[in-house]
Design a protein that fits this description.
about 45% helix, single chain, 22 helices, seven-stranded antiparallel β-sheet
């Protein structure tokens, strides 16, 4: 090959390679396809047996064959590996030399080991190796290999080096494109909105999450001022703040506690959390903002704060109710004893009757407080909610009056729930009373039931609930609705918008629903009515409401046999009242103030029929005292009294006792004793 001919070929192929690479890159062609075009072209130009591209891996410890082209067979292969440990001289030569031209591979120490294992088996006699470098770093090698000895002239070496530069450029372009694609993937796949703003205050980057959050498309927002995304009341001052920030930019981390709102395309405002990062690009400072929708977080925080507030109020209400019940027990009990002792025409009878009636009304309020504070006893059973609603239809119609229409929409295949029937009925009546109050001029109340399956996405937004199957009860009205301030406090005790009322109705509903393991949510707007949605856990057990039977006369007579009763009560006034009431029935009584005294006396007694004990004593728990007494008198019956227990008194905990909630009257006490004596005979 002559010099002029070689120069022509070299210039021609360099131009051709450049055109091919640019054409494929501009068309976003596959890198391997571009490389194959180049390797086949240079193999034909230099008339070599094989052309191969090896890439550096493992931090320079090995080379891996990316593409190997056999010209005569027109066959492609890849995957072979050469390690530096096995061929150190070859690797050193690649690192140090611009070009390695070898006319006879058997006589060159630089590749002697490599030639023996990788070249001779393929009958390669001469090679021309052009290292691929990017920014001075070795990234690979472009290999020309021939099956006969060959002297590589200056033009061929120049061409090989030029082709290597182009392959290195392809590698660099490929790496840059991969990095850009990775960057785009990260930006577009980011869960947070990403907004970049240039020094002119214009939006220069707006990812997919930002489009979803703000409602703008990229075509609409790019180049627009950032103030489009800022609430109107601060948009005028915002450029000034941005200018100050650019003078001394700093990193602002996500969630630093500020209440920040952003404006969407429809001008609605959403709470957001923002992190800011200043980045230098092209000689200017770009501010990158990561924006996270904080609506869910704010809602969960609100739910948590409401739950904590309700729990705190419940603790207070429960404590007040407990102490008040002790006082009411004394007032009611002694008033009833006086009424029993006086004739109705006695001058003090009506006054004492008023005292007794007022105490009973106060007892109803304390019971509501205990319900709200979750300290009343709930007797849960498997129920069909539809049956409960059907049973309440008549009373609900009377309660709402003729001006309000009551509609039912009950699911036919409704699952059962496990709830306290009395609490459930009270809850429903309170909701109906609330609906009736919202429609003084009439309207419609609709009650509906349905099965519901709540997934993790829903329960993550409603902290009271766990994923699973529920029964949904909906009570909606067409009344006047509620403003946001009322909605915020709707379930709090003593909060009411009515001139008359205790403000406990919806608080009791809230507490009852949560004690049943459910959740209640209210949706309301002024002038558009109100809807309460209640979710109660569904159960697979069949409904089986137990029905008690009244005692027959002979059983009552047997129960009225005089008994020996031990009273354990640390409040002296209550203890004296119980003692007087029991003595009046003719039973024999011993009364003590502590658990230790009760156990000591029980050891000395030859006969003991009933123990009446408060749940919480100064030195012991009532159930523990009863357990100790039963070790001495195995057949003794027990009556437990309580204004509330510090722990929830579940049916399981009182199954071995007769529970008598405070406040109670002498008649209530007599009935409990009768039940205990009858139970003893059984």
């Amino acid at each position: 090959m002559g010099t002029s001919s070689c120069n022509y070929t070299s210039n021609h192929l360099n131009g051709a390679l450049l055109r091919i690479s640019l054409m494929h890159l501009s068309a976003s062609a596959d890198f391997i396809h571009v490389l194959k075009d180049m390797l086949s072209l240079v193999a034909e130009a230099l008339a070599v047996s094989r052309v191969c591209v090896w890439l550096v891996e493992e931090n320079g410890k090995q080379l891996r064959s990316l593409l190997l082209y056999e010209r005569e067979k027109k066959r492609w292969s890849s995957g072979n590996v050469i390690t530096r440990k096995e061929h150190p001289k070859y690797f050193n030569a690649l690192l140090q030399e611009r070009l390695i031209a070898i006319s006879d591979v058997e006589n060159d120490v630089r590749i002697s080991g490599f030639a023996k294992t990788h070249l001779k088996p393929h009958h390669i006699k001469s090679v021309l190796y052009a290292p691929l470098r990017v920014s001075g770093d070795l990234k690979g090698v472009l290999c020309y290999e021939h099956t006969s000895p060959r002297e590589w002239n200056r033009e061929e070496r120049a061409f090989a080096a030029s082709a290597a530069d182009m392959v290195a450029h392809l590698l660099e372009t490929r790496a840059r494109i991969a990095a850009e694609e990775q960057y785009r993937s990260l930006v577009e796949g980011a869960p947070d909105a990403i907004v970049a703003v240039n020094e002119k205050g214009q939006i220069a980057l707006f990812n997919r999450a930002a489009e979803n959050l703000f409602g703008y498309s990229r075509q609409e927002i790019l180049g627009q001022p950032l103030e489009l995304l800022v609430p109107p009341e601060i948009s005028k001052d915002h450029p000034v703040w941005c200018a100050e920030y650019r003078k001394k930019p700093y990193r602002w981390d996500m969630g630093q506690g500020l209440d920040i709102f952003a404006r969407k395309k429809d001008n609605s405002l959403i709470p957001v959390e923002i992190s800011l990062s200043p980045v230098q690009s092209g000689g200017e400072t770009i501010i990158i903002a990561f924006v996270r929708d904080a609506s869910r977080k704010r809602e969960l925080e609100k739910q948590l704060m409401r739950a904590q507030r309700m729990e705190a109020v419940g603790q207070l209400a429960g404590g007040v109710a407990h102490d008040f019940n002790n006082l009411l027990t004394i007032i009611m009990g002694n008033a009833d004893l006086l009424l029993q002792a006086l004739d109705p025409d006695h001058p003090f009878y009506s006054d004492i009757k008023d005292i007794s009636d007022a105490a009973h009304r106060a007892a109803q309020i304390t019971q509501q407080l205990l319900t709200f504070s979750k300290r009343q006893v709930m007797r849960r059973e498997v129920l069909d909610l539809n049956n409960i609603l059907r049973g309440l239809r008549k009373i609900a119609t009377r309660l709402l009056g003729e001006q309000i229409q009551l509609k039912f929409s009950l699911a036919k295949d409704l699952k059962n729930i496990k709830a306290d029937p009395a609490s459930l009925e009270q809850m429903l009546l309170n909701l109906l009373i609330n609906a009736g109050d919202a429609m003084p001029e009439g309207g419609t109340v609709k009650i509906s039931t349905a099965n519901a399956i709540l997934d993790r996405k829903y329960t993550d937004m409603h902290i009271e609930l766990e994923p699973g199957e529920y029964v949904m009860l909906t009570v909606s009205d067409t009344g006047k609705g509620m403003d946001p301030e009322t909605l915020e406090h709707i379930f709090e005790p003593f909060y009411t918008t009515r001139e008359e009322g205790t403000g406990l109705g919806l608080a009791i509903v809230y507490a009852a629903v949560h004690q049943m393991g459910g959740g209640i949510y209210v949706y309301s707007e002024e002038g558009k009515g109100t809807t309460f949605k209640i979710y109660l856990p569904a159960v697979k057990e069949p409904s089986k409401r137990p029905r008690g039977r009244p005692l027959e006369e002979k059983e009552i007579a047997a129960a009225e046999k005089k008994a020996v009763i031990l009273i354990v009560e640390d409040d002296e006034s209550i203890r004296n009242f119980i003692k007087r009431a029991v003595k009046k029935t003719g039973h024999r009584v011993r009364a003590v103030e502590s658990g230790a005294q009760a156990i000591n006396i029980a050891k000395k007694m030859t006969t003991l029929d009933i123990v009446i004990s408060d749940w919480i004593l100064k030195d012991e728990r009532g159930p523990d005292v009863i357990h100790a007494v039963r070790q001495i008198h195995p057949n003794v019956q027990a009556i437990i009294t309580s204004g509330y227990a510090n722990e929830r008194i579940s049916p399981e905990k009182i199954k071995d006792f007769i529970f008598l909630p405070k406040p109670f009257t002498a008649n209530d006490l007599t009935e409990a004793i009768t039940k205990a004596l009858q139970k003893k005979k059984e």
